[in-house]
Specification:
The chain has 175 residues and is α+β, with helices and mostly antiparallel strands. The chain is 42% helix and 25% strand. α1 packs antiparallel against α4 (124-145) and α2 crosses α4 (124-145). The protein is globular.
């Protein structure tokens, strides 16, 4: 059996799980009813726990990075439209924050309210598709960086950046 490179393994995992755009759109449409979005500036931090209550971040425009509080390491990055914090295993949220990579439009909704609205609107399949995609992306990312040298970790992050949509690559520079 031929050993695959780490980047090939990541492509194999993510190649089987497409970003569920239609399901994300349904969830965002539901969440936006009767709520006004907020615009935040580039590099601002957003926390997924407010007043000891878990939050869902509904990303309407722009892009953000999920970072570890202890060292600021980027664990995941997404572009709009997307939803962060819609998973039950959010016990790690005090250790993570989201940083806006550009001026971003978003909504923050308490997780329990989000779940109630998912139930009322019969959108559990859409939520499951979002979670499946998120789990696959996180798994692929951690598979890439586990037990790698510093060079390999930087290389993997650069490959992830190269795989971002062209519209995002043209907006940002590496300074």
């Amino acid at each position: 059996m031929k050993k695959h490179s780490k980047s090939q393994q990541m492509k194999d995992i993510l190649g089987n799980v497409a970003r569920p755009e239609e399901h994300i759109a349904k969830l965002i449409h539901m969440a936006c009813k009767h709520r006004a979005p907020t615009t935040i500036s580039k590099k601002r931090n957003i926390y997924l726990t407010q007043n000891s209550e878990r939050q869902c971040l509904i990303l309407l425009s722009g892009s953000v990075a999920l970072c570890r509080i202890s060292d600021g390491m980027v664990l995941n990055a997404e572009y709009a439209p997307f939803i962060f914090g819609a998973n039950a295993q959010l016990s790690y949220s005090p250790h993570l924050y989201i940083k806006a990579k550009e001026t971003t439009c978003l909504l923050l909704i308490p997780q329990n309210i989000f779940y109630n609205e998912v139930t009322e609107n019969g959108l559990w399949q859409s939520l499951a598709m979002l979670q499946d995609y998120t789990a696959a992306k996180v798994y692929a990312h951690f598979m890439m960086i586990s037990q790698l040298s510093a060079y390999e970790i930087i290389r993997c992050h650069l490959i992830e950046l190269m795989n971002e949509p062209d519209v995002l690559k043209k907006k940002h520079h590496c300074s």
